[in-house]
Every structure is written in C-alpha cells, then in structure tokens.
Design goal:
mainly beta; six-stranded mixed beta sheet; 5 domains; Immunoglobulin-like
C-alpha cells in the first residue's frame, strides 16, 4: 500500500515511475494504518470491509524513444525496392520505457510516409530515394498522421521520438523493356551475312544504373553477358537465343552457365526485363545446281515451236524456302519459278540464260530485272547457289521453200551451162540460213549461202533443194546425207518441204513433139 485517498480525485504526482494499481475499499468502523501493507492480506478496518472485485492499472512513465537500429546494429541500409525477397528490414530499439512504441517511416524531410504496425518495414514499390525510420515512444492515443512532419506532440498524452534514425537508401530499379530496331519481339539473324549477325539492343530504362545484356538459350541458361549493346551471334550456340536486359548496382555475380532466374544476378540491386527478344538464327545455303543428268549446261534446240522441259536439282539447305531464278546472261532476273525446278523456255527468245537456286527465309522482295549479284532478294536471309545452270536456247526454222514463181518443181533442159534458180523461204527468224542441193538419195551435192542457188555442171538428173536454218558452226559437207548427218555444231532445222529440179541434156523446145515426156514433172517424197 502506498496511499489511501478519501476523494475520487487521485494525484500520482509524487509517485515514482512504474506500474500502479488502484482498488476501491468499502468499510465500517475505523480504518487501520495500511501504508506498506500487502493489499491481499491486510485487515483494513476494525469492523467490516471489502475490496473491489477489480483494480485499475496505472502506468506512470516518461516515454523514451531511445535509439533504433537494424538487428545487426547498423543504422544504414541499401534496399532493392523491386526485389520483394530482400526489400524488407527488421527493426529494434533499446528503450526500457514501458510506454507504447511504434516505428515511423519518413522521407528525408521527415514527412511521415508509413506508421508501421510492427517492428518491420517493407520498401517494396517505393521510388528510388533516401528514407528514414524513427522510433516513437508514446502514451495515450497516437496522433501522428501520414503526410505530416514527424515533430512535436505525436500522441494525446506524451511522446518521444528516438534519438536517431535508420537511414535507408532505396533503389527501385526498372530495366524497362528491351527492343531491337522495331517493336517485334522476334528477329532473324542471317549467319551467312557477316554484317547482319550483329544486333543492337536498347533498354527503355531511364535510370543511371549500369546495364548488361544477357544472352540465354530457350531454357534461360546464360550463354553470354555483354556490356555492349551490339552483340554478334555468329559463334553463340543454338538455333534460337533470347536476349534480356538488366540494370544493376554493385557487381555482377551471375556467370555463363547459370540459369538466369535461379541465381542472384548482382551483389546489390538489379532488375531484369520481363520480356526478352527472341533471336532466330538462319544459315541458308544455296548449294550447287545440276541438271538431272549431272551436267550444268545445256543447249536447247527449239524447232517447229516444240518446247523442251529441263529439271534442275540442288544440294541447298538451311533456308525456310527454296526457289529457282531464271536470268539472262548478265544475271538480271527474267522470271521466278517454283521449287520443282522444271523449266520450260518455250516462250523466251533465243539466247543464253542462267538458272540460280535461292535459299531464303522471310518474304521474297525483288522484281524482274534485279541483278543477282547486287540485289536484295528477301526481307530476311538469303543465299544463291554456288553455281548456275547455263541454258543456251537456239530457235531454228527451215520454214517452207519455193521458187520465185512460187512453184516447187522445175525442169531444166540443156545442161551445157550452169543453172541459177531464185528460191525464197517462209521463215522469219533471224538465223543462219543456207540451201542444200542433194540428189534423190538426199546426198549433199552443193551448199549455197545465197537464195540464188546454182545447179553446177553438165550432169543431168534429178536434184532436190532444201532450206536449212541453223546455229553454231555449219558442219554439212558434200557427200553427207542431209536428213541423217549432223548439219551444224549446235541446232538446225531442214525446211518442211523441198523443191525439185530436173536437168535434161536436150533442149525442151526441140523435142516437144517427139518426146514431150522429158519435160514432165515428177513426184518426190521427203
């Protein structure tokens, strides 16, 4: 017992700091002196008495904010606000006051940001900046408010801020988004092009932290760490790679071979982009071309308008698609053919043509007339075959021939002198053209390079004249068979018909009545 009060107004002014209890006492008779006695066993009156069933607890204290610290005793910390696993801190105080105690999180100007419900602060999501954690010892009801300055009276009774604060530097790193020459999240690398195996990357982060670009496989295993935004993918393994961006403080701990998201990337704060750029690597190979018979050049003889089909095969690989391009002799594209490799040159003029194989990815992007040596043929990767097939198209037409009078048979009576006959052909092709004079067995007697064909000598008999359109070198010779021999080094075509000449040693006019049959026309066959 410390004191007895007869009035309901009680002053604790002279009491020391501590915890006290106030009981009510109902009694009869006179009170006994109770100071220093135990309330539970003392007889308070010389008559009847009874203590109240309960008591009031009174705490008399001076609030003491004392000092605050982290569990390891430090009062300075660096926090990664974007990493939830490491963005909180436990708090301690050395106060011995029995008063109520809480912690306040403020900015560097002591404006209250959070009133912490426990001895722990979570910095997740707070912007980069300097923060303070104060301790607050108080009695009564807390009057501190978020947004107000932590100073002065902060409770309805009395309060005391800690003598110090914990300084927290928060880094809310955000690597942002990674991009490479556009908005696409997938880009194709052409390994056959030394220039395009490089790609430049950009992070949208506007912070001042250090940056790294991380190349992984599709399992996110680290293949390379690059401080340079320009990366060469030529020697990196895998058909597909991913590129991530990272911003960080401190030193990188991750290394090649680590799983990116299963390791601590840096010894301080870091942020990795949520999405990656996928790198699709392609190495189209045009291969080598051959015709179905293994050759790489072919002479195509077109006679009477008959087209010839040739089939080309390739060893090309590595691209998503393969097509064949037909060019002129200067390698300017004439047309594009599908990848079955079948060529019909029937509609093209005579001349030399080349066929190239094209292995490519993406979309074809060229036009007729583009040169295969200088043009760009795909919006992604492409490569031409290492060689080309040469087609030499020769169009020859012997046409139909006739004499100047449009006839096809003539009888020449009297062979004492050479006979010259004017012959014309129906062909309009620009080509080499000669006339062959043969006997009835088609053995060549003479060759005329002019349409004024001469039947030489005094020999009488039956002769045939053929037209011959040809390319290359003329091989026809007297004594050879015009219908079976090779008449040129390239292509040729005999006329569709022949004209017949009959030479007689007599004068037709002198024998008209005696032997008119000498001047009769004779039938012939080709």
């Amino acid at each position: 017992m410390l004191d007895v009060f007869a009035e309901p107004s009680i002053s604790l002014r002279n009491l020391p700091l501590g915890v006290f209890r106030i009981y009510g006492l109902s009694y009869a008779g006179a009170l006994n002196n109770s100071k220093g006695q135990n309330v539970g066993s003392f007889i308070f009156s010389n008559s009847c008495f009874e203590l109240s069933d309960n008591y009031l607890s009174v705490i008399k204290t001076d609030p003491d904010g004392a000092k605050v610290a982290l569990p390891d005793g430090n009062t300075r910390t660096f926090v990664c606000g974007n990493l939830p696993d490491v963005s909180s801190r436990e708090l301690i105080t050395n106060t011995t006051s029995p008063a109520l105690y809480t912690f306040l999180l403020t900015d560097d100007q002591n404006k209250i940001l959070q009133i912490l419900p426990a001895a722990k602060v979570d910095f997740t999501g707070l912007p980069t900046g300097e923060y303070r954690i104060w301790g607050l010892s108080y009695i009564g009801t807390l009057t501190a408010e978020i947004g107000k300055i932590a100073t002065g009276k902060l409770s309805t009774s009395c309060s005391d801020l800690s003598d110090n604060f914990i300084r927290a530097t928060v880094y809310l790193l955000d690597a942002g988004q990674i991009s490479s020459a556009g908005i696409d999240t997938t880009t194709t690398i052409c390994l056959n092009d030394p220039v395009t195996t490089f790609r430049a990357f950009v992070l949208s982060s506007n912070g001042q932290e250090k940056q790294r670009f991380i190349v992984t496989d599709l399992d996110n295993r680290i293949l390379a760490l690059s401080g340079d935004a320009m990366i060469n993918f030529r020697n990196l393994p895998g058909e597909y790679n991913r590129v991530w961006g990272a911003t960080y403080i401190g030193n990188i701990q991750a290394k090649v071979g680590d799983l990116l998201f299963a390791t601590t990337f840096a010894d301080s704060c870091y942020s990795i982009t949520k999405q990656a750029i996928t790198i699709r690597k392609r190495n189209p190979e045009g291969g080598r071309l051959t015709l179905s018979d293994g050759s790489t050049d072919q002479l195509l003889c077109f006679t009477a308008g008959v087209p010839q089909i040739k089939i080309v095969s390739t060893t090309g690989t590595g691209g998503d698609n393969y097509v064949y391009l037909l060019t002129d002799r200067l390698n300017n594209v004439v047309s594009l053919f599908p990848n079955n490799g079948q060529y019909n040159l029937g509609d093209l003029p005579a001349g030399e043509y080349h066929v190239f194989g094209l292995s490519y990815t993406g979309k074809i992007s060229f036009s007729v007339g583009t040169n295969v040596r200088t043009g760009r043929f795909s919006d992604q990767c492409f490569e031409f075959s290492q060689n080309f097939i040469t087609f030499t198209k020769s169009v020859n037409d012997g046409g139909r021939i006739q004499f100047a009078d449009r006839g096809t048979r003539k009888v020449l009576c009297g062979v004492s002198k050479d006979s010259t006959l004017m012959i014309s052909t129906s062909t309009l092709l620009v080509q080499n053209y000669v006339y062959l004079v043969t006997d009835t067995f088609n053995q060549i007697v003479s060759i005329s390079t002019s349409n004024q064909v001469r039947i030489l000598g005094e020999q009488e008999g039956y002769f045939r004249i053929w037209g011959l359109g040809y390319s290359g070198e003329l091989l026809a010779k007297a004594g050879e068979n015009a219908t079976t021999a090779a008449l040129s080094s390239q292509c040729w075509d005999l006329s569709d018909n022949l004209v017949q000449v009959i030479k007689r040693s007599v004068e037709c006019r002198a024998i008209e009545f005696e032997r008119p049959q000498c001047c009769l026309d004779l039938f012939w066959t080709k």
